[in-house]
Design goal:
With about 325 residues, the chain is mostly helical. It has a single domain, classed as NCX, central ion-binding region (A middle domain of Talin 1). About 80% of the residues lie in helices and about 0% in strands. It contains eleven helices and two strands; from the N terminus they run H-H-H-E-H-H-H-H-H-H-H-E-H. The protein has a two-stranded antiparallel ribbon. Helix 3 packs antiparallel against helix 9, helix 8 runs antiparallel to helix 9 and helix 10 packs antiparallel against helix 11.
Length: about 325
């Protein structure tokens, strides 16, 4: 028990340090590239915080455990849309940029609903996962190219910083010069490493504590493990909100969902499509994920185009209900 407690505490410390380093590096990279922090959150930060999940799922596919990745992806997406957005919105209402309303929120809903549909209605085929991977690749290329093109246009026009609906949130330390590219690279990579190590330690420590206290292993898998894999996104987004970078937090959460469903599921599905004989217990997470993605469309347009504290609390409340039902189902299955 003491060992598990020390692992959990040490992992939490690494997460906090890694999140701070990653946010600082990302903000300074956006300033040097003269692009919105929203774009950085949707791409570099989202991909980076999801990189450990990508590696884990590829290894699982190579070992013939592709089905395990399905639950991991669904659980991570649910946590991104409830825990990450919910906690951040409760701390500070999240302003939703017009870019997100017009593009990413709709794209996230379309991809996750399609994802749930192919798992629930038919056996997953390689061509279906190839479509998801191609959509994600095309979207990512368009996002990066348009951001760089805007940056070059502003530089030629002599604009000092991005403006308009995609402009970054005011940075409280914007008057200080950004880090050099070398320091940005070192901080970004070190932050990712600390997030990966901290998330692993926290998850293992919490699982050990729960099992030591007599909590069924099935319940641990439904709750602690799925939350543990999302801790890097959670800590990074909370750190961003505390620094006033709500764009970075929103971009990280939505970008991670797109990366999980488009890149991770696409790559793993091409390697070894999961055998999706969906049981009643797994139907709930798939349906809940799709409903959350659809719900973000109206949520992004209400309360003056913000994710308000009320909406954040609603997302967290829905996750508590989901956990309660999933835990009950797990206990019933274990006792059957």
């Amino acid at each position: 028990m003491l060992r598990d407690l020390l692992m959990f505490g040490g992992g939490l410390a690494l997460l906090l340090l890694g999140g701070r380093m990653l946010v600082s590096a990302s903000v300074d990279a956006a300033r040097r590239l003269r692009v919105s922090t929203l774009v950085v959150g949707l791409t570099l930060v989202a991909w980076g915080t999801s990189a450990p999940e990508l590696a884990l799922n590829i290894v699982s596919a190579l070992k013939g455990r592709a089905d395990l990745s399905l639950g991991n992806i669904v659980g991570a997406n649910i946590c991104n849309m409830t825990l990450v957005l919910g906690v951040c919105a409760v701390i500070k209402p999240l302003v939703v940029q017009q870019r997100l309303i017009a593009v990413e929120i709709w794209l996230n809903a379309a991809i996750l609903i399609f994802f749930a549909a192919i798992c629930l209605l038919a056996e997953v085929a390689r061509w279906q996962t190839a479509i998801m991977l191609a959509i994600f690749a095309g979207y990512s290329a368009w996002t990066i190219m348009s951001a760089m093109q805007q940056s070059r246009s502003e530089e030629r026009a002599g604009v000092a910083a991005p403006s308009g609906p995609d402009a970054p949130s005011p940075d409280p330390v914007d008057s200080t010069p950004p880090m050099s590219w070398l320091l940005i690279g070192v901080s970004f990579l070190a932050g990712l490493a600390l997030l990966g190590a901290g998330g692993s330690l926290c998850s293992d420590g919490a699982s050990g504590l729960a099992i030591g206290l007599g909590v069924p292993a099935a319940v641990v898998g439904v709750t602690i493990v799925s939350i543990g894999t999302t801790l890097p996104e959670m800590v990074t987004s909370v750190m961003a909100v505390r620094k006033g970078q709500t764009d970075l937090a929103m971009g990280n959460a939505i970008g991670s969902c797109l990366f999980n469903a488009g890149a991770i599921f696409g790559i793993v599905g091409l390697m070894a499509p999961p055998d999706t004989q969906v049981t009643a217990s797994f139907t709930l997470p798939l349906v809940y994920m799709a409903l959350l993605a659809a719900a973000l469309v109206p949520i992004s347009r209400t309360f003056g185009k913000t994710v308000s504290r009320v909406e954040g609390a609603g997302l967290l409340g829905s996750y508590v209900v989901f956990l309660a039902i999933s835990t009950w189902n797990a206990i019933k299955s274990a006792g059957a």
